[in-house]
Write a structure and sequence with these properties.
Elements lengths: L1 H36 L8 H23 L7 H36 L1 H28 L10 H17 L9 H19 L1
């Protein structure tokens, strides 16, 4: 198992470097494209033609979405850069999360039945807390609770949030029940782990 974890560590290190290189390359392309789009560089020069030939296929899908949303096409390169950076951070974070879960499972299996039970409790509460985060983030983007991408989070957390909403009033337009639910889940997890 340790050789697998070492290989995963190496993969994470390589992915980090690749993500960093992709972010730098995208930043340079975004800067060049922005300079051409805003006419800070002669749009008919050799540099502008090179930038358009390389950058336009990358930023064209983003530009179409921005135009449909009513934005300006000159911002497409920066949105592309943001997508590369956020996507890279999410990828590296997911790989790190996977590594931690594999290491935890390995330790739990070595500790016997009690270790496996503790691991299952930790995983259960972690999934519930992730579902709370997903609900909060979906509310920022006004996603429907019936959306197949977010329905699982509503299903997993509504049993806890509904009673809390009846007791805790919103603060203006802010619903604080997910924060309270997160702390309730943390306390409940500590209690259950203490009992085990």
């Amino acid at each position: 198992m340790t050789s697998f974890l070492l290989a995963l560590d190496l993969l994470i290190a390589v992915v980090r470097r690749l993500v960093f290189a992709a972010a730098i390359a995208t930043a340079l392309l975004a800067l060049g494209s922005w300079l051409v789009r805003t006419r800070r560089v002669n749009p008919f020069g050799a540099l502008a033609r090179l930038v358009r030939r390389v950058a336009d296929p990358l930023f064209a899908p983003i530009e179409r979405r921005i135009l449909r949303a009513g934005g300006t096409p000159a911002s497409a390169p920066w949105w592309g850069l943001a997508a590369v950076v956020v996507g890279g951070i999410v990828l590296v974070t997911l790989l790190g999360f996977l590594r931690v879960q594999i290491a935890s499972a390995s330790l739990a299996l070595g500790a016997g039945p009690r270790g496996i039970l503790v691991l299952l409790v930790v995983w259960t509460f972690s999934i519930l807390q992730i579902a709370l985060f997903a609900r909060v983030i979906s509310s920022w983007f006004q996603l429907s609770p019936d959306s197949p991408w977010i329905r699982w989070a509503f299903t997993l957390t509504e049993w806890l949030l509904r009673p809390l909403r009846q007791v805790i009033p919103p603060l203006g337009m802010i619903d604080v029940t997910p924060i309270v639910a997160y702390f309730v889940l943390s306390l409940l997890e500590s209690f259950v782990r203490g009992v085990l």
